[in-house]
């Protein structure tokens, strides 16, 4: 008996609740729009007291993927929410809940923010199993519109330090037709952006996510714009792995660009060192066919030694043809003296010259270019030190500090010096550059 009364009481309470409107009737759009429909202009933002309408944005990023360096795009799966207050609306009667779900189709008859994705190449709106969007009406006439989208977004990537690059990819939302006088987008003050912590990208790591304002000044006015900035850092380990197992040439970018460039520069420098040494060793301006000075002393000496010097070392390459064809050029006195000195030295050095060297006779007409080559070959043989010099102007400079060193020795000394310096300098430089490189890019490992 008591139990029956108790049940009746419960039923009575239930009925009372029902009568109070706990179970609401369906709404029609006319229930929320002003009674005089003419007064509601759906093209005009609900500006209260002349102030621009503020739309709050919230973005939940559920996924990031398909980062494509070739087309400079990436794909983002987002929940995109906009909240705005339209004071012109009416609230449905007896609204007891915090919010009511409205039919999304009603948006066609209401004002709604005209935001668009500025850097989107394509937007996919999912319709399975039902269209993925909804609208809420809050008690304070605030409308929340939420939509789930898959966006293919363009992202300007800079590959200057590829593969050590960090890219900033954005998701920009701008107002299409309203200037900042009418409409302003703002990030939701409480939770503007939520990025799924489980986002894992193979080739890059998401290191930062930010919200920003990108309001743009156009000739037609200022247009409000908001953006999400993802900072993506390339995973070097993945990169190396990928490139070890796939072909290197299916990409536009040169892999390991900076590193390879440094290596190439070093190879090039080694080559340049070799060239430099060669140049130093044969550092002779090509002498003009020497016309023997007509002076009695020098001329005698030269004439006497000429055939021998040619036969012995081939050092004075220009001598034999010149000797056999003594064309006299008008020489200045200074030059004459220089030439005399050359011959003096040649006479001195001739004694030490070994006779094992191959004598290459110069072609009669072209004596110039032949000289340096012959010289460098001779100098590189063990008998270097004693080799008689060709007649270059530099060695005969009067202020030569060490008269004991022949020009050839001088050149050899220089070459050896260059070589020794390079032997220390190159590896040291390479090691330090390597050190710096891997210090700078250590974090990418
Ligand atoms: C709303 O509530 C009032 C009283 O609070 C009631 O008179 C009215 O009938 C209710 N309207 C609807 C549509 O439930
Ligand atoms: C996004 O940024 C917030 C705040 O900076 C941070 O707490 C959160 O971990 C970030 N999410 C991801 C996935 O990086
Ligand atoms: C647009 O913005 C610029 C600066 O951001 C400001 O100087 C200018 O007055 C603005 N114009 C309008 C029409 O609001």
TrEMBL record:
Signal peptide: 1-21
Compositional bias of kind Gly residues: 311-320
Taxon lineage: Eukaryota, Metazoa, Ecdysozoa, Arthropoda, Hexapoda
InterPro entries found in the cross-reference section: GABAA/Glycine_rcpt, Neur_chan_lig-bd, Neur_chan_lig-bd_sf, Neur_channel, Neuro-gated_channel_TM_sf, Neuro_actylchol_rec, Neurotransmitter_ion_chnl_CS
Origin: domain of life: Eukaryota
Family membership noted in the UniProt record: Belongs to the ligand-gated ion channel (TC 1.A.9) family.
One GO CC annotation: plasma membrane
Species this chain originates from: Drosophila persimilis (Fruit fly)
Protein's name according to its UniProt entry: GL12665
SUPFAM superfamilies: Neurotransmitter-gated ion-channel transmembrane pore, Nicotinic receptor ligand binding domain-like
């Amino acid at each position: 008996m008591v139990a029956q009364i108790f049940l009746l009481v419960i039923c009575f309470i239930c009925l009372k609740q029902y009568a109070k409107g706990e179970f609401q009737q369906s709404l029609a759009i006319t229930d929320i729009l002003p009674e005089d429909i003419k007064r509601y202009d759906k093209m005009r933002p609900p500006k209260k007291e002349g102030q621009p309408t503020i739309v709050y944005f919230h973005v939940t990023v559920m996924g990031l993927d398909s980062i494509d360096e070739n087309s400079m795009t990436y794909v983002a799966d987002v929940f995109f929410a906009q909240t705005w207050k339209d004071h012109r609306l009416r609230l449905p009667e007896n609204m007891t809940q915090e919010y009511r779900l409205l039919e999304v189709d009603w948006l066609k008859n209401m004002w709604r923010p005209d935001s668009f994705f500025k850097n989107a190449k394509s937007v996919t709106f999912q319709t399975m199993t039902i269209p993925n969007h909804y609208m809420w009406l809050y008690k304070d006439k605030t409308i929340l519109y939420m939509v789930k989208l898959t966006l293919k977004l363009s992202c300007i990537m800079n590959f200057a330090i590829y593969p050590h690059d960090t890219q900033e990819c954005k998701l920009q939302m701008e107002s299409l037709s309203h200037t900042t006088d009418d409409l302003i987008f703002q990030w939701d003050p409480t939770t503007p952006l939520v990025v799924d912590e489980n986002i894992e990208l193979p080739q890059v790591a998401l290191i930062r996510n930010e919200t920003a304002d990108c309001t743009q000044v156009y000739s037609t006015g200022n247009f409000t714009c908001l953006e999400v900035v993802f900072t993506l850092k390339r995973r070097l380990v993945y990169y190396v792995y990928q490139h070890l197992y796939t072909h290197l040439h299916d990409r536009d970018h040169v892999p390991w660009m900076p590193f390879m460039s440094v290596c190439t520069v070093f190879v090039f420098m080694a080559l340049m060192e070799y060239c430099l040494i060669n140049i130093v060793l044969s550092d002779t301006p090509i002498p003009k066919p020497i016309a023997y000075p007509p002076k009695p002393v020098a001329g005698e000496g030269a004439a006497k030694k000429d055939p021998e010097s040619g036969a012995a070392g081939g050092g004075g390459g220009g001598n034999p043809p010149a000797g056999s064809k003594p064309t006299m050029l008008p020489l200045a006195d200074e030059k004459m003296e220089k030439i005399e000195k050359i011959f003096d030295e040649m006479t001195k050095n001739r004694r030490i010259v070994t006779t094992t060297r191959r004598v290459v006779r110069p072609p009669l007409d072209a004596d110039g270019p032949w000289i340096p080559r012959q010289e460098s070959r001779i100098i590189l043989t063990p008998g270097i030190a004693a080799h008689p010099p060709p007649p270059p102007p530099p060695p005969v400079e009067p202020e030569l500090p060490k008269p004991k060193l022949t020009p050839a020795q001088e050149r050899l000394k220089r070459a050896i010096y260059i070589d020794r310096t390079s032997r220390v300098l190159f590896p040291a430089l390479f090691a330090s550059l390597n050190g710096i490189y891997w210090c700078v890019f250590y974090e990418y490992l």
